[in-house]
């Protein structure tokens, strides 16, 4: 990833992504949708790491997923597990709407953001392929010969789309590590 590319400008983000910091995981599908559509959002835990001034975005993520929670002040039900998406002012009474689980979030965003509606299924599939390439590089290299259209057209094509290309080259994209997609050398081809 390029460290020289400036961070994407975020002016008055309407959406707040609440997900674990430092890993792509299930939150990455939502990040990709926002990036492809050029929609401003806040990645709460990644953009507000713990510091000596008390800022800690991950505490917000943990707070919405607290097992003792019976919901929030805006009447949203408790979040079972991240990711969650907070949309300030989106409820009829002006309160924040809190949606959780990746499919629910993408279903909500689709009709509200045109480009997301068209590209979500492709971005979800692309993210799965990308994660599998990291988890099982030798196996996926061997399989790429069985599915040439995926590996010669689809996969590289998505990487070149406006918004996605810049995001993939930026420091905003969390690196694969111990999330959903981690490297499994013991399960990969020898």
From TrEMBL:
This is GST N-terminal domain-containing protein. Gene3D superfamilies: Glutaredoxin (3.40.30.10). It comes from the Eukaryota. Residues 14-117 form the GST N-terminal domain. PROSITE patterns: GST_NTER (PS50404).
